[in-house]
Specification:
By secondary structure, the protein is mainly alpha-helical. Helices cover 80% and strands 1% of the residues. It starts with a helix and ends with a helix. Belongs to the sodium:solute symporter (SSF) (TC 2.A.21) family.
Length: 479
């Protein structure tokens, strides 16, 4: 392994572990403390953990490559996500935070079950999380293995080391250690991104005629919407991310942690600023990479996920080490947050453990990490494919959550049953598409000019509305 990379990794791991250990002083005496900080978290820490959890290694690897291949249209896709997330956080998210303080929720599946008064629904949601999120976690750990390979480490050793960091930082103090290291990693991600951007910009200005490259870039359509971004493809990419803030458990659970109204509102502002900066950085790197390709400094036909590794190999060891560590940080922050949130659902809604059973929480986290890292070592192709569909499989939770929050306290058992059916049908459509056509084709395919994500939303919403109508009919009949 490159000595510079090894030194950077040791510093990263050591500082993170110290930060995670120090966070134990916040006190973890119950499951509520362990999973959602007992609702005692301040704005900066809450914003940091939300940002680092939301923005995974996809940004500096996937989004950079997507922009390199498809142009500035990728910025529109990612900007739609950011605007919709901030909108949800400012409206529905705030209502969820207030309800969480009353319901004392520690898991998103518990929240949905309580909104509908249905234990069966809570278990269904928890099972969906387990099915949909574990492949996504595995993909994050596999990404760690690949990035470690750039540093000269064996893939398997990278997976083991990454998994060890994940489980250690979770076990030390639960959400407190995860949030503290998330803030630390979020800063690393931003610094690494800025260094990456500066290097690509300086390399471009040294090796090519910038004005001519920009002209060529524009003439080839990379500064507008390329043929890749058809209406159907744009909808396929954006619909799952529009509802990301209320479908993915690792971010939904972050809505429960704020200590007061001021902390909540300030954290939304801080996240908005961070998200916009990080998005602009990733998109700019992707465009600069395409400029480098036009200038003949890197290949013009690189696979999407190969762009960042190729650029990292051309950097000096010191810069490459910093950027690589920042990408590792993005993957680790997302992976440990997912494991913690899925663990909370298993703890509360499947095993139905008591608040004081922290040993059970530790065990669940360890088992989930071992399963994810074991699957990552096996490098099963369908795991990577299935992780592509994670956001699509979780889409039925969008109307279920929105309806539950909107009609809180007015939903009967019929609505709860309809919600279960809506989730099973919506996720079933996604699984059927995966088995029939494969993940990539299912994600972008359209039927009657609408992508599968839109049909999942339509079908699950229709089933839910039918349940509400039956509720209203029964209520009027009883009068």
């Amino acid at each position: 392994m490159n000595l510079t990379h090894l030194l950077a990794l040791i510093i990263y791991f050591s500082m993170g572990t110290v930060i995670a250990y120090v966070s134990r002083r916040m006190g973890v005496k119950s499951a509520s403390d362990y999973y959602v900080a007992g609702g005692r978290m301040g704005a900066i820490l809450a914003a940091g953990t939300y940002a680092a959890t939301t923005y995974s290694a996809f940004m500096m690897v996937g989004l950079v490559g997507l922009t390199y291949q498809t142009g500035v249209g990728a910025f529109g896709f990612e900007l739609v996500y950011l605007v919709s997330t901030v909108t949800i956080l400012s409206t529905v998210g705030f209502k969820i935070w207030k309800l969480a303080r009353i319901g004392k929720w520690i898991s998103p599946s518990q929240m949905i079950g309580d909104l509908y008064g249905s234990k069966t629904l809570a278990v269904t949601v928890a099972a969906l999380y387990l099915f949909a999120m574990i492949p996504y976690t595995v993909a994050q750990i596999q990404g760690l293995g690949v990035v470690f390979q750039v540093s000269g480490l064996e893939y398997v050793h990278g997976v083991i080391l990454g998994a060890s960091i994940i489980v250690l930082w979770i076990v030390l103090a639960g959400i407190w250690s995860v949030a503290s290291t998330d803030l630390y990693q979020g800063i690393l991600m931003l610094v690494g991104g800025l260094i990456f951007l500066s290097w690509t910009a300086s390399t471009l200005t040294q090796g090519a005629d910038v004005s001519r490259v920009f002209e060529t870039l524009g003439s080839q359509g990379f500064l507008g919407l390329t043929s890749f971004w058809s209406v159907q493809v744009f909808l396929a990419y954006t619909i799952p991310w529009v509802f990301f803030a209320i479908t993915n458990p690792q971010v939904v659970s972050r809505l429960y942690v704020h200590r007061d109204v001021h902390a909540y509102k300030r954290s939304v502002v801080l996240f908005s600023a961070y998200g916009f900066m990080y998005t602009v950085i990733a998109i700019s790197i992707g465009l600069f990479a395409r400029m480098l390709a036009i200038g003949g400094l890197i290949p013009a036909d690189l696979p999407r996920d190969s762009v960042t590794p190729i650029l990292l190999k051309q950097m000096t060891p010191a810069l490459s080490a910093i950027v690589s560590v920042s990408i590792m940080a993005a993957a680790i922050s997302t992976a440990n947050s997912i494991i913690l949130s899925v663990s909370s659902s298993i703890f509360k809604d499947i095993l139905n453990r008591e608040e004081k059973s922290l040993r059970a929480a530790f065990t669940i986290n360890l088992v989930l990490t071992l399963i994810a890292s074991g699957l990552a070592i096996l490098r099963l192709g369908y795991i990577v494919d299935l992780s592509v569909l994670t956001s699509v499989l979780l889409l039925p939770l969008a109307p279920v959550t929105l309806l539950g929050v909107w009609r809180h306290g007015k939903l009967s058992r019929v609505s709860g049953t309809a919600a279960v059916v809506a989730i099973l049908v919506g996720a079933g459509i996604g699984v059927y598409g995966f088995l029939s056509y494969g993940a990539a084709k299912t994600f972008t395919m359209s039927y009657l000019s609408l992508p599968i994500s839109a049909w999942i939303l339509i079908s699950s919403t229709a089933i839910l509305l039918l349940g509400v109508l039956v509720d209203e009919f029964k209520r009027k009949g009883e009068k």
